[in-house]
Amino acid sequence: MLAKIKLFIFSVCVGICFLIKIDLVSDLSVLKITTLYETNFFALSVFTGFAFYFFSKHPFHKISKIKIFLSVLFSLFMLVGEGYASYGSYKLLFLNIATILLSLVKFVGYIYLFIHLFSLLDDLIDKSKNKELKFKNKYLSKYLELFNKYPFKVSFVTILIVLSMYMLAFYPIVLSPDPSFQIKMYFNEHTKYIDWVIQRDPEIFMTSHHPVFQTYMIGFCLSLGRFLVNDNFGLFLYTLIQSLIYSSVLAYTIKYMSNNGIKSKNRLIVLGMYLIIPMYLLYSMSAVKDTLYTAFMILFILKVFDIIKNYKEINLSYKYIAVLYFIMLFIGLFRHNGVYVIALTIFVLIFYTRKNALKILISFFAFFVSIYAFDKVLIPYLGISDGSAREMLSVPFQQTARLVSEKPDFYNEEDIKIIDYILKYNTLASRYNPDLADPVKNEYNKNTTKEDLKDYFYVWFKGLKKHPDIYVDATLNNTYGFFYPDKHNWYIYARYDKRVTENGLVDYHYNKLSFLRAFIDGYANTVPYIPIIGAVSNIALNTWAVLILAAYLINTKNKRFLISLLPLFGSILFCFIGPANTYFRYTMPYIFALPVLTVLLLEYIRGEKVEKK
Question: CA-CA to 573 of 20 to 30 Å: which in 11, 94, 236, 542?
Fold first, then answer.
């Protein structure tokens, strides 16, 4: 009987987690408490009943300490995320006695729920099997036969067939603001980016704010198409090249799984995700730098996995090292922060595979020299201006802006003068946006020197000592969507952007298939909110998935595969120091790599699970 009472209490706590918001008791007025009771009691009763039934039928077994730790961590994510989503601060949890008690109740409920879910996940992993699939239908059976015999070719053709619908709808390409500005820079048009930097050559308006290599790639395709047919055809040439590379990488993931003994069922599930979840194929039509960056990052992750699995004691060939070099090179050329993700991973990898450490180090050194020569020799030679230093300063700038907004009398005249020179103090508080750093950093003084920044960080540190809570609020308010699943900011690139058509620069236009575009657009914006399926595109849940994979690997004899997760952790880290909250394309490297990596790692999690109780 006592056990049933405890179970009922935990069930009530779980129900409260999902049906009562902490913000509702931030004001203890009688009116608000009455409203809270009337609007949630029936739903709470029903939810508690279902929870009680579920927990009764599925009692949890003991789980490892790392999973208990994650259960606590995820519970904190939920509470802190709710604080920022509804109140803009974690301080909501401690606002009054009611919020404190409700937070504790929800904390207990979340922990109990997550422990149960981990227990259930353990059972699912134990019962899941890597098995072949069979179809009774002769056409499906024939497809499966070809799929098993030619995994790359069949996957590649299948992806292209489905992708052709996207190409037809969005011909020639989907231009968003960033690639539109890149095209303008290619044609030496004046853009806002040149106003943010010290111009290297007064006659050249291109900057390295966006990847110069990709800017020239888009521009060259456009120029070639203009010469051969028209501007639209030129833009489509870029789409075609990008789509072929991207589709080849997705097809290669299927082939790689086949080569590693993954049976047809799991391979078809991953291929089905690529085809059904629209984010995978829709981004092949977008000219953003993240598409090809993500494609090469997936290849890099698979190479790291391959080295860990097969080459600890076997010598790598020079061909293998050359391929690794070119993969790293393209990652660095398509996104600046890719260099740091690679450096972190390679540094750990060379300590693991000491037999091949020298070769891997040579490959990385060649990559580093190539990127350095491109950035520090070729770009200056071409007269292209460097990007602004402010791109790496989103976190401290947001912290300063929030402090000025909440404590306008904190700084003295000398401090204000230092901040004003760099960020325009008088409008700083009004420009502060908790979710986006761009309004703050857009007023960054391009003439700022290293000495000016040194003075600024002295002032910044003064604020840290006196008001660390405000700094924490500023950072978490700008990033909580990356760990809080209820924060939604889903978007896709599908709308027509006419920036490049201004002054007749480029004759870019969509075709007349607006009904097909509207259908795909509606479908793509609906899928993320479909239960279970939509979880694949939920940013925070994908962050959790990386942590869960790491936890399960820690509980096996295959801890070495944690190295293959380093590029994913590196990508997550850059999301937390980036300028925008819940910005999907920043998360593409780890979200798009997760399906194939999860299936590969699941074999080692399932095959050699050694729980540490």
Answer: 94
